Amino acid sequence: MILRTMNNNEAPLVDAGGQLASYARLSFQLVDRCGRVVRNAVDALSLETVATGIVSVTADVDGLFSVSLWPTSRGANSYYYRVRGCTSIGREVIDFVAPFPDGAGSLPWSEFMALAGLWQDGHEVGAATGQIILVETQSGTSFELGVAIDPDTQLPTTTFTELA
């Protein structure tokens, strides 16, 4: 089965307080365009059966992760990955759906988020104008998704703030 790697080396995950989201857990689940879990999928190019279980990855102490996924662009149907993220203490902080394109080399996390409409021109959508993205998870938890610039590295870092 063909896989492509994605990582967030350009922007480590951070929590709402700006601290590195050490050991945050991300899960990726194949879904159709209506958000239904895909149980059987076939790669339209290789005709191989695609593993459709949940793929999980845990960020390291520096908030960095790398994961290998099947490119949804190779599907005969419109497939996406539903991404859920939890902090190291189990609090859900992110839940969105995006396609995962085939391509050479590793896909940066920021480009994947751009496919979900959450990243543009090197910043979270709205970050340049001071706007913050408000997201509500299916469980009803709301949070703000934003970007902060690390003062030491001058690189963007993803921030999540749970709303009360």
Provide structural commentary.
This protein is mainly beta. Helices cover 4% and strands 39% of the residues. The strands form 5 sheets. A 4-stranded antiparallel sheet has the order 5-2-7-8, with helices on one face. Strands 6-1-9 form a 3-stranded mixed sheet. A hairpin with a 6-residue loop joins strand 3 (41-42) and strand 4.
Please tell me how large the radius of gyration is. 16 Å
Class inferred from helices and paired strands = mainly beta
Fraction in helix = under 10%
Q: Which parts are unreliable, with pLDDT below 50 for 5 consecutive residues or more?
A: 119-133
Q: Give, in order, the helices and strands.
A: EEEEEEEEEHEEEEE
Mean pLDDT: 77
The best one-word shape is globular
| E-strand count | 14
Largest sheet: 4 strands, antiparallel
Query: How far do the termini sit from each other?
Result: 43 Å
Query: Helix tally?
Result: 1
Beta-strand percentage range:
35-45%
If strands are numbered along the chain, what order do they take across the biggest sheet? 5-2-7-8
